[in-house]
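Office hours follow-up: a student asked to see two folded examples consecutively, so here they are.
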Amino acid sequence: MTLTPAPFFTDIYTGPEGGAAYWVNTSDGVRIRVGYWPAKNAKGTVLLFPGRTEYIEKYALCAAALAKRGYATLAVDWRGQGLADRLLDDPMIGHVGKFSDYQRDVAALLDTAEKLDAPKPMHLIAHSLGGCVGLRALMNGLDVASAVFSGPMWGINIGPHLRATAWALGRLMPYIGQGHRLARRSLVRPYVLSEPFANNTLTTDETMFAMMRDHLRAHPELALAGPSFTWLRAALDETRSLASRPSPNVPCLTLLGTRERIVDVGRVHDRMAAWPNGRLDLVDGAEHEPLMEGPEITEPLFDQIAEHFQTSADQHTSGKSRAIG
């Protein structure tokens, strides 16, 4: 088995020893990038689904925290971001034709896990956009022992006075052949390079915010700005579709910062209130990215995640044994 090596930037934060990245082709011919960090005596592998604008290297410290607790990590650059194929002539605009295309990326990620012989059982950590993609994957039967969501994009926080406009333009612009254009009120530069640390919507930890800036300044090819009108339409359609379906019977822990301002908080509360074997934990003082806060917040969270993984894996194994018996 041969996987094609891909660029893997370790100059900002290295992550666990032995990390590597690979090029992977999806079923529709899009080239994406998959990153893998092993762990000694691994108890399983975390499938890490990043958010919109994100890239593998941003999760090096998360992978290190997971490796310390006995878990390997397999992360992905979704199509249209990171070093994966950009889908528009303007590479700074985030774009996807339809959200079901992300499931092709999930399938390619799972195929890579098999080729790498990544330790089982598998667990899911999905952030923001990744939470939307991950929920759909679970509904489609993604075989994981447990799931953890961080600030999941099960709805987008759009003010009531702008929601009707977003829906209208999300349909009109693609219809008239302008779906590739930057959505109204979207940033033309990456958020962390456009906005100051003070009152940013991602993290309260200045070191983590600086890391995000350092990555994009050192490797501008990772950068992404706002989404296209087509992406916006597809996101609104997908989140509405997901809201109409019951939660999957997978042990679930969802982390939501008490200062969350990006995703629709009400949708998260509604989903978790009806999730069998699910729990919503509000992370006091955290912004949109609880796992990118300071160590006083993240260390207890990763302990909690590891405990969730272990308990769920034990139940998963026990359930399979009963089924065989």
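And the second, which I mentioned at the end of office hours:
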Amino acid sequence: MKILRLTAENILKLKAVEITPDGNTVIISGKNAAGKSSVLNAIWLALGGGEASRAIEHPLRLGEAEGEVELDLGDIIVRREYSGDRSRLIVENKAGARFGSPQGMLDELIGRLAFDPVAFSQLDGKKQVEALRQVTGLDFTGLDRERQEVYNDRTMVNRALKEVEAQLQGITPRWSDGPKVRRDADELKKMLAAAQAQVALIQDKVRKQTSIEQEMQVLDLRIGNAQAEMASLQARVAELLSERNNKKELHTNLGFELIEMDEPDVDSIVSQLAEIGEYNQQVAEQEQYARLRDRRDDYATQAVQLGKRIDAIDSEKERLLAETHMPLEGLSFESDELYYQGVPFKQASSAEQLRVSLAMAMALNPKLRVIRVLDASLLDSQNMAVIQEMAEEHDYQVWLEVVADQPGLGIYIEDGQVVGTPPKEVKSRGKRTQRGPAATLA
């Protein structure tokens, strides 16, 4: 189903136009602000319902209170009438019978008429992929979510694996399969404590003996002094001799005690404790090495398993893509990026991008085979040829807006009217209205 005739009166910048397109490409040309876009938007206003009304808040020509758009689609005629800020939609068949729910019927018919291939090429990758999913019915949301989760898990596992491997590199195992039981140093610690106490006791006795020796030396000095005063100090000498004898006996007894006491080898015990500490440290490093090695092996296994799951998800997506009929051969998508012939869409040539965009527009509008291209002046001759080729190949009607300074290219719009053919009277809302020139594009 295509547009066989379009009439519009007092819509946007249009005064009154009637266009009967012929062929698969309909070029609407004219100067800027002459009403070219108004022709393409009039089609949308007639069919688009609420979405079009929200996008175009003031559909009536400035200063006009009423206006209308009428499309002859062959099997049905669509007319949208505007009066002030209100509109009325009428859809009837050739016999004049009206449909009870006109907008609902149009919504099923037109799909997404507002689809603009040039605008599609400027969308971000996520929106382009979403459009392709709508066309194909493919939804990788669940698979993509699972793949991302698995990928994140694998990333964490690989990070942990690298950390463990780095720790392993800092440890040199002492034995290939040597002792892994730590030695008990408690008994030696007790021996060390007892030995240190014994040494302290001996040192204390030595200090005391030394002190007594010093005291004896003092006494000897005093004895010498006392002997000098023998006559007067005999009694004192006797007393001092007695005291000295007591000290001598105590000194002798301490000497016997020291002879009987064995001085322990503290350095030997300390050396043994150091040896045990070093040994146990080596055992600890060996144990840590074994633990890290096991963790490394576990992470490596997990990474392999997660990688296999990612491969399985990718294979499932490839299978679904292979089984899905694409709007254009060579079209595919991955996550939030569209691909054509294995190349990201954004890196494809302008002609390839346009070919993909047109294929998408056609797939989104399988019933009403009408596509609008705003700002077609941006397209070069190669891209215009692509549009004409695909429109003819798939039997679609493509309406293009092109800037032109004078008539000669397609249907020329000037001051809201078609230029070049005489006026034609048409009926509008039960009254006679003088329309502007009509046009047929050959």
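Two things to take away from it. Residues 266-323 form the longest helix (58 residues). The chain has a mean pLDDT of 83.
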